[in-house]
Design brief:
- The protein is 39% helix and 17% strand.
- It has 376 residues and is α/β, with parallel strands linked by helices.
- The longest helix has 16 residues.
- The strands form 2 sheets. It has an 8-stranded mixed beta sheet with strand order 3-4-2-1-5-6-7-8, covered by helices on one side. The chain has a 6-stranded parallel beta sheet with strand order 11-10-9-12-13-14, with helices on both faces.
- It folds into 2 domains: 201 residues, Glycogen Phosphorylase B (Rossmann fold, 3-Layer(aba) Sandwich), CATH 3.40.50.2000; 168 residues, Rossmann fold.
- Helix 2 runs parallel beside helix 3 and helix 7 crosses helix 12.
- The two termini are 15 Å apart.
Length: 376
Amino acid sequence: MKLLMISGDRSILEGKLGAFFYTVQELRKHWDRIDVICPRIKQANMERPESGHRFMHEGEGGEVYFHPCPRSLLFQVPWILNKGTLLIEQHGHDVMTVHDYPPFYNSTGARLLKKKTGVPYALELHHIVGCPKAADLSEWIGCLMTRIHVRFGIGSASGIRVVNETTRNTLVSWGVHPQMIHVVPSFYLDSEVLGADLRPPIAYDISFCGRLVPNKGLREVIMAVSLLPDARLLVIGDGPERQSMETLTKKLGIENRVTFLGWLPTQEAVIGAIQTARMFIMNSTSEGGPRVALEAMGCGMPVLSTRVGVMPEVIHDGVNGMFTSGTCDDVAQKISILLRDDSLRERIADEAKKVLKTYERSTLVCDYADFLKKLP
């Protein structure tokens, strides 16, 4: 069988071997061919992108081709329609999967493509932006757009994939028929990488990893660190808020206790950096997962988390992790509790490791492929 994937993720073509790379690498084992239609990439080093770029072709599984749009996002809908039609005519895809988010150009293109070719498709909502709490006005607008879209704009989709029960319940409360919604987790954990016995030496007290945008709650984490004498924070990731966050550390006089590491090239590098701390913090106001918090748990780290995404389904407060309200005072209090009590950290870490069995990568990717193959 052949899969057409319509995605906004072009990280693989930009040379980033992150979550999407490892997902596609595993997913190709279940398909004869995968074609990925995505937006234009920033680098201009690809020749004739409209002809398709073969990225994965050796080893087990079908070949994977990427088809980035040669023009801006304003032309993404016609690119999905025209390129998708050509690919389906040439290769006879059996099903499409569509990663959907505001402003919904992917699902708009897929709806037109389904009407023209008849190929069924699933919408994938991995994260409702701004839900349960919007970090700024743009997220509030994004959440409102999503609510309107799923209520009136899902079109001819055969089903909606969500990755946690929280999102499912939100969509049902917004009027989406429960039978349309399928919970198929996307938190693919690699036990070989995460379960390794060898760990780097501890250099920090807290590690943080994510795109540096308002909803990640890094500002509150930095302010919390300023309340804890001698606490050291490692920040992994990059984004539009990096400069303002670095400025904040200087304003608070803790720049010598906070390290901004930036993006790291591989999953192994990220995991290794995360483990240089005594605990991991995920302080977001909205998430789909996040996978990185589960990866930290799989490494055997105490995780301090807000109650967003899949975390309420995974963490038992004080047993295999701890919850925070996300305010700087509460974050500081919970960090202080964990730093003072070595035995508590060890007990939580031992329980946290069990998450590897729940979200084992090959099993979950197989479930994902089966879900797509069974679409009506």
